[in-house]
């Protein structure tokens, strides 16, 4: 039996939200939120309001996701982005979809890294084509699926037997 439960709040900054989330999940997905450009941008950001403050250090964030999983459970960080901002243009934080956490940080938290910053652009390009993302709508041009799309994911697994 599967279910979805929505919890509104700051995870893991708010202890009550962490308690409400609980544990024992087989899969946790973060889509288009945990981006390096939002969390730890490499370049200056003009509008700081677009950045995301998780309210906790990286090790606490990773431990919170780890603790939410059942042994053998997976944590997927999946980011669909526009193409990375060229170096001669003002930085667009949502264009950097790399993991905000290093492979070393993820492993230190106890996860096994299954995939790290794996490129999934071709699959999403096909999906976007099928869904008509490239088609004009309401006077707006469609998305340029060939030149303005970047998709990266990081998949980690809590070991089936915790050390």
Give a short account of the largest sheet: 4 strands, mixed
Query: What's the number of extended β-strand segments?
Result: 4
Rough outline: globular
Number of H/I helices: 5
Q: How much β-strand is present in the residues?
A: 15-25%
| SSE pattern, N- to C-terminal | HEHHEHEHE
Structural class: alpha+beta
Roughly how many Å apart are the termini?
29 Å
Spatial order of the strands forming the largest sheet: 1-2-4-3
What average pLDDT do the residues reach?
95
Low-confidence stretches: none
Radius of gyration: 17 Å
Helical content (DSSP H or I, runs of 4+): 10-25%
Keywords:
163 residues, alpha+beta, four-stranded mixed beta sheet, 4 strands, 24% helix, globular
Describe what this molecule looks like in 3D.
The mean pLDDT is 95. It contains five helices and four strands. With 163 residues, it is an alpha+beta fold. The two termini are 29 Å apart. Helix content is 24%, strand content 22%. Strands 1-2-4-3 form a four-stranded mixed sheet.
